[in-house]
Specification:
A five-stranded parallel β-sheet has the order 2-1-3-4-5, with helices on both faces. The chain has a four-stranded antiparallel β-sheet with strand order 6-7-8-9, with no helix packed on it. Strands 10-12-11 form a three-stranded antiparallel β-sheet. The protein is of the alpha/beta class. It has two domains: about 120 residues, Rossmann fold, CATH 3.40.50.2300; about 100 residues, Arc Repressor Mutant, subunit A (Orthogonal Bundle), CATH 1.10.10. It has eight helices and twelve strands. The longest helix is centred in the middle third of the chain and has 16 residues. Strand 1, helix 1 and strand 2 form a beta-alpha-beta unit. The chain starts with a strand and ends with a strand.
Amino acid sequence: MTRILVVDDEPQILRALRINLRARRYDVDIAGSGAAALKAAASHPPDLVVLDLGLPDIDGVEVIRGLRGWTAVPIIVLSGRAGSEDKVAALDAGADDYVTKPFGVEELLARIRAVTRRLGASTEAVPALRIGQHTVDLADHRVLRDDGTEVKLTPTQWSVLEKLLRHPGKLVSQRQLLQDVWGPEYQNETNYLRQYLAQLRRKLEDDPARPRHLITEPGMGYRYRP
């Protein structure tokens, strides 16, 4: 059973989400603060986190960074902050998706299903691929530097990278990437792609400012150059 940690300081939202998620056979833990969320995640590691940004003790973006220090668990941000700066900050910290309050429960459930599908997607056998000083093994979901240390990627970072690496040398359009990774309702969220490609370049390219392998084709899409 999929375990979901719901983090929000509004008791009515916690109660509503716990009822709706349990009715759909999810195992649900709840937390009303950032500190409680980090403690709960460490004690009973979740399969997915639904996280409010406006917490009473620790800003939600800091909670994301705290989680990303040790886990790649998918994180869906749930927040009343509708500004693009807040979305960028959350995505850049490592969130996988962003839902703005007020929201419909069915919309949130659809986002949860999409993230868990990405997490559980099967991987066809492919040879190991190279990006700079890194070897990417898609079958094992591992990235190793040449010195043997492992680079951690979040599930969504993996999904974006995999879509590019499975089409070496070919242009993958923005629309195709957004639809394949996030779903058809995200075809205009090009800011998601900019954030995730920037994250991948920081982790994998020798010079992220001058990428040699994860290439942007302005106005069209992205390309993996072997």
